[in-house]
Amino acid sequence: MGNVAARESLALRWAEVCADPTLADLPYKVELNAYGTIEMSPANNRHARLQGQIALELGRQLPHGGVLTECPIFTDIGVRVPDVAWASNEFLARHGETTPFPQAPEICVEIRSPSNAEAEMAMKVRAYLDAGAQEVWVVSEDGDVAIHDAGGTRAASGYPVTLTLPPRATR
């Protein structure tokens, strides 16, 4: 992904995917790997509930920026789409609505699905950090949060945010 031609090719492939009417209503999150191949993850309502709550909390507690859900980002492993991201006003002014973003917003959040392997999550964490994220949060469906930065796993976020995530529903 390091050369401009590969990035331009991936950007064109992403534009094709976004314009493809057969992919418009899929109940999956769509990403591209480094070769431009589509990868999809099935959605579930627990995942959606966590995504909504995290977006709400970030927007409420970090007012000097914007919350994004499923924003495409160029990374070394393709166009990846975190479930939630927070971008400072400076990031948003610099990149606007460029699709995919050429670098990662400050906070990228991935909510683990049962189909996510540990190695896959580690690869995504590294990819977002290498693309410029200051923190990557990995949230389990039970609501446990692991926060990563360039130095490794942190005990807490460097941002003034406290997440209160909903418990699993009993039914």
List the helices and strands and how they pair.
Blueprint: H1 4-19, E1 28-33, E2 38-42, H2 45-61, E3 65-69, E4 73-75, E5 78-80, E6 84-88, H3 89-95, E7 107-111, H4 118-130, E8 135-139, E9 145-149, E10 152-154
Parallel strand pairs: 7-8
Antiparallel strand pairs: 1-2, 1-5, 3-6, 4-5, 6-7, 8-9, 9-10
Short description:
By secondary structure, the protein is an alpha+beta fold. The chain has helices spanning 4-19, 45-61, 89-95, 118-130, and strands at 28-33, 38-42, 65-69, 73-75, 78-80, 84-88, 107-111, 135-139, 145-149, 152-154. The chain has a six-stranded mixed sheet with strand order 3-6-7-8-9-10, with helices on both faces. A four-stranded antiparallel sheet has the order 2-1-5-4, sandwiched between helices.
H and E string: HEEHEEEEHEHEEE
Number of helices: 4
DSSP E strands, number: 10
> What is the CATH C level class of the domain at 44-154, in words?
Alpha Beta
Strand order of the largest sheet: 3-6-7-8-9-10
Distance between the termini: 45 Å
Cα-atom Rg, whole angstroms?
16 Å
CATH topology of the domain at 44-154: tt1808, chain A
Secondary structure class reads: alpha+beta
Report on the biggest sheet: 6 strands, mixed
User: What is the typical, i.e. mean, pLDDT?
Assistant: 92
CATH architecture of the domain at 44-154: Alpha-Beta Complex
Helix content: 25-40%
Uncertain residue segments: none
**Shape by Cα distribution:** globular
